[in-house]
Amino acid sequence: MLLLPLDGAGPLHRQLYRSLRAAILSGRLRAGTRLPSTRSLARDLGLSRNTVLAACEQLAAEGYAAPRARSGLFVAESLPPGTHAARPRARGKPAPPVLSDTGKRMVSAVAPGRATWSPWRKPLPYDFRYGEPNYAGLPLDTWARLLGRRARRLSARRLTYQHPGGATELREALCGYLSRARGVQCAPEQIVVVHGSQQALDLVTRLAVDPGARVVLEEPGYTGFVLCAKAAGAELVHVPVDEHGLRTDELERVTSAKLAYVTPSHQYPVGGVLSLPRRIALLEWAARAGAYVLEDDYDGEFRFDGRPIECLQALDRDERVIYVGTASKLLFPALRIGWVVAPEPFAPLLQNAKALADTGTPSLEQLALADFISEGHLERHARRARTRTAKLRETLLESLESELGDGARVRGASAGLHVLVELPRVDARKTHRLREECSRRGVGVYSAAPFYARPPGRVELLLGYASLDEKRIREGVRRLRRAVDAL
To answer: Which domains can be identified in the chain, with CATH numbers?
Structure first.
């Protein structure tokens, strides 16, 4: 239906003509847009069809619209000579919005350019964008088949509002998969399906953190959580990390904390794996402090050196760990499905928070993912993706060694989909120039500085490699070396 106000002046066909013309000039009806049929316009506006025909004929005669054979009337691709698009009415400067304290914190935390994701960016042929999975290896034919099968079988019961915790089939499938692949111990009722891990971090922070409450996070650490904590008004306590993950000995100085956020399987962004003694120490600290540990297992399936390490939640005996996982790295980010495994008393509260946020995650994709898991496709894909990614990792490490030698130090290569590369000879003040030199050569590189509360004095880059092939990795590193030389 098209809203077309009539001004009441003169014959009806002239009123309708002026309304349609104004819609075209203002851009409401864009060039090339098909106009509604004269019958539907007449029905919607309560006018005779002859009135509508007269208005449309006048539009066509003056060049504002053009008929296409057996297709109808379309807005002209260009305006007739001597006409101009209507300008919006000039308005005074609008008053600033009146925000709540929470709104003010959100605006302050999420300043322009601070978001950790990028909806669009200029494509580069050698883009080492972190956080991207291996798109080339995705079993999209299988996914499309399962999605289509579920779509064809949808019943009316599936078309109404669903349980905010997620589809029963998916929660049951996830319960089995997470137990086998990550050692998670839970019942399906403890799982809440969310719109990716970022929504999980937001919901948990809203539930667990009051303004002024202390929150422990890694230094450096994932800014997606930092922004959630700041929006909640938390007092941030940065605890340093090393090659073995969070320095748990530093927790002894932390008192009255409500929540600790960690990435133990592949510390983000440095890449260390939290050692077993530190995992135990962290859980003991949480039990003493009465704090929750928010475990972000964003790419825990990708481990290359040594045997797989079970998640932190598997060691939890005191119901202190809230486990978060996502399909974004195993499958693709646009799927927007993640999961939270909450301690038994916390799970129903998280379901209520999810219901308040959006009443639930779309069902069709959940059901397709449940089939993808239960039929064994996810675990087969994970094995193949791990093998492919390991080869890409070796190519990246070999290329960095051959091109940059001791001019680069690599950290966090034993797991995950990215590495952190230190350039000890390049001052941090040259980071922007280095990125420009790389971009000029078609290479996308990304600074690790935004993940620090106190950025280091040398250049550190996050290089994601899973979405590239071996040839592009080698050429991309070669061009990176040239950019470094140009400094």
So the answer is: 12-75 (1.10.10.10), 108-133+381-486 (3.90.1150.10), 140-376 (3.40.640.10)
